[in-house]
Automatic annotation (TrEMBL):
Name of the featured protein: Phosphopantetheine adenylyltransferase
Cellular location(s): Cytoplasm
Gene expressing this chain: coaD
Residue stretches making up the Cytidyltransferase-like domain: 6-133
EC number from the UniProt entry: 2.7.7.3
InterPro entries to which the protein is assigned, alphabetical: Cyt_trans-like, PPAT, Rossmann-like_a/b/a_fold
Binding site for substrate: S10, K42, T74, R88
Residues that, per the record, bind ATP: S10, F11, H18, G89, L90, R91, E99, T123, S124, Y125, I126, S127, S128, S129
Length: 151
């Protein structure tokens, strides 16, 4: 049976923290679907198409990565695409507490397992919100995002 993981997020924008988790997840799964969640009530810095292109360009060389978009519950999306796993990264204890509650809820509602990977020490401080703040103040984010993310 093919092991498929969904790595959900808004990826606004894709950061080196995200790629750290994706790259380290690749040996664990036959395929990783990077699923860009959309929420009509949320304001994004980058359009859905820009975010998708950032990811597609970054992983153009990797056949095990699929990029898709979805709305609604992540577990419903997982069921739709036949994924048995949700891949999540943990940066700190606060992430763990938040993600644990979601994972336990998802497990109660389905048979989909959440797999957590700890971020590498050199990327654990990076978040999309910090990158957006730097961008909003005309700062250089090149050391925090893949080279294909060109704001």
């Amino acid at each position: 049976m093919k092991k498929t993981a969904v790595f959900p997020g808004s990826f606004d924008p894709l950061t080196l923290g995200h790629t750290d988790i994706i790259d380290r997840g690749l040996p664990l799964f036959d395929e990783i679907i990077i699923a860009i969640g959309t929420n009509s009530s949320k304001e994004y810095m980058f359009s859905l198409e820009e975010r998708r292109k950032f990811i597609e360009k970054t992983y153009a060389h990797e056949p095990k990565v699929i990029v898709d978009t979805y709305q609604g519950l992540t577990i419903d999306y997982c069921k739709k695409v036949g994924s048995q796993f949700i891949l999540r990264g943990l940066r700190n204890p606060a992430d763990f507490e938040f993600e644990k509650a979601i994972a336990q809820t998802n497990r109660k509602m389905s048979d989909i397992e959440t797999v957590f990977l700890l971020t590498s020490a050199d990327t654990s401080y990076i978040s999309s919100s910090i990158v957006r703040d730097i961008l909003g103040n005309n700062g250089d984010v090149s050391m925090f995002v893949p080279k294909d993310v060109k704001p």
